[in-house]
Amino acid sequence: MAAKGPALWRALRPNHWIKNVFVLAALVFAQELGDPEAIARSAAAFVVFCLLSSAVYLLNDILDREADRAHPAKRHRPIASGQVSVATAGTVSAVLAVAGLGGALWLGTGFATVASAYVLMNIAYSLRLKRVVILDVMLVAAGFLLRAWGGAVVLGVEMSHWLILCTGLIALFLGFVKRRQEIVGSAPTESTRPILREYSLPFLDQMIAIVTSSTLLAYALYVFSSEVADKLGTRYMGLTLPFVLFGIFRYLYLVHQRGKGESPTDVVVRDVPLMLTFVLWGLACLVALYVLR
To answer: Cα–chain-centroid distance for residue 77?
Structure first.
């Protein structure tokens, strides 16, 4: 086990834990950053979702190991390449799932319910539902929604309908772009994802165009809505809109001009302008919510 440590660590996909920052959305937008207890509970919720997401990744890689071995890049994954055995991966996945759900229950039954729904949905996705066209992308988006919802439940705050809408739309955007680039990156005969046969570039480009427009419109309506002014006590959230516009346009540029997007996580963490935009958006949110009130 010790010899396989580095490979097992890679199999947990710690670089994908960045997706769990959605758990912290409620902490920021409910203006609870000044409450140490709220920060601690949100941090614990973040750790829980890191444990659960890694458990899910291991399960998915176990089930996809044969297909991954036929993929030029995925064949190097620890389980597909044989660096980590199926028995080891399965055991670690179960341990992480039990630890994560135990931690979720410690944080409260409401949060444990959300965490359990996340695990059950991903098991269903890995076993069957990832082969159902459109639903596969919607379930990935639902995973992000459950993260954000869990972040609200653990703090005992109401989850804004705007947060639900914007989170769901941006997750759909990333999901459809990922499917598009998976098709671009592999010929039909080389595809390791049967679901890709149900998609085409024109169809996905149309879906991406629709979701992009909807995302930008929803976020623009949110930052200038009366809910922000009345409930959050600020009229300056509009300052964050340019960063969202640039971030989405930059992402589309990387997809269409640079061929990126098959791994949204890699795009975000490796593209300096995009990462800088994300950081500046976060700072603008903090200024608007906590300073300019």
So the answer is: 20
pTM: 0.90
> Is residue 245 within 8 Å of residue 276, measured between CB atoms?
no
| C-alpha count within 13 angstroms, C-beta hemisphere, residue 88 | 17
Exposure string of 107-129, with b = 16+ CB inside 10 Å and e = fewer, is: beeebbebbbebbebbbebbeeb
Structure tokens at 243: 């960063």
Task: Output the tens digit of pLDDT for each of the chain's 293 residues.
Answer: 544 678 889 989 998 899 999 999 999 988 888 899 999 999 999 999 999 999 999 999 999 888 878 777 778 888 888 888 899 999 999 999 999 999 999 999 999 999 999 999 999 999 989 899 999 999 999 999 999 999 999 999 988 888 889 999 999 999 999 899 888 876 544 445 678 888 999 999 999 999 999 999 999 998 888 878 777 788 889 999 999 999 999 999 999 988 887 778 888 888 999 999 999 999 999 999 888 87
Rounded CA Rg of the chain: 19
Q: Categorise residue 146: left if φ over 0, alpha if ψ from -120 to 50, beta otherwise.
A: alpha
CA distance 100 to 87: 20
Look up residue 25 and give its amino acid.
A
Structure tokens, 183: 């098709």
User: How far, CA to CA in Å, does 14 sit from each of 55, 87, 88?
Assistant: 11, 20, 18
Which candidate, 21, 90, 81, places its Cα nearest to that of 62?
90
Quote the tokens at residue 56.
């899910």
Nearest Cα residue to 194 out of 55, 56, 66: 66
Is the Cβ–Cβ distance between 160 and 95 less than 8 Å? no
Residue in the block written with tokens 């750790």: 47
